[in-house]
Specification:
With 153 residues, this protein is mainly alpha-helical. It contains 5 helices and no strands. The protein has one domain. It is elongated.
């Protein structure tokens, strides 16, 4: 059984040869380049990441990865929270006239209820809300794990 390529037209690399490994394009750590959209502020993300590292003081690679994951989850949750807020504002604006005609004395709670029902019909908004919820659960999980690691030092 041959473990390396014997075709002479291809480069010969044996298992014992030192082969440079290209960097992983998915990066294990959260960096501005793989976390932010072009519209988002790199300094704000870096500030969140630094605050998480200052709070939990990671001492090894695993703890640093967890801290970076927590910073990324906080950032993503805030992003999708902002999307949900904008969607609610838009839904309130677009349903305002309809609610005013059907219920001339509608209070803010009724208007908000109808706006949320309008949003619930939009699959993209449901997805954004789901991502926000999953990021929130992951944040709590990361905080518990980092806290328990810090206590076990």
């Amino acid at each position: 059984m041959q473990l390396y390529n014997s075709d002479p037209s291809l480069p010969s690399v044996r298992p014992t040869d030192s082969v440079p490994v290209p960097p992983n394009p998915t990066h294990l750590t959260a960096t501005p380049e793989n976390t932010l959209t072009f519209l988002e502020n790199i300094d704000q993300f870096t500030h969140v990441q630094a605050a998480v590292h200052q709070q939990f003081c990671p001492t090894n690679d695993f703890q640093r990865l967890l801290a970076d994951d927590l910073a990324e989850c906080l950032w993503v949750r805030n992003r999708f929270g902002a999307i949900a807020n904008q969607a609610l504002n838009f839904a309130l604006q677009t349903t305002w006239d309809d609610i005013s005609q059907r219920y001339p004395d509608a209070d803010p709670a009724l208007r908000t209820h109808h706006a949320w029902r309008h949003i619930a019909a939009d699959p993209a908004q449901i997805r954004a809300t789901d991502i926000h919820s999953r990021a929130s659960r992951r944040i709590h999980s990361d905080i518990r794990l980092l806290s328990s690691l810090a206590r076990s030092k």
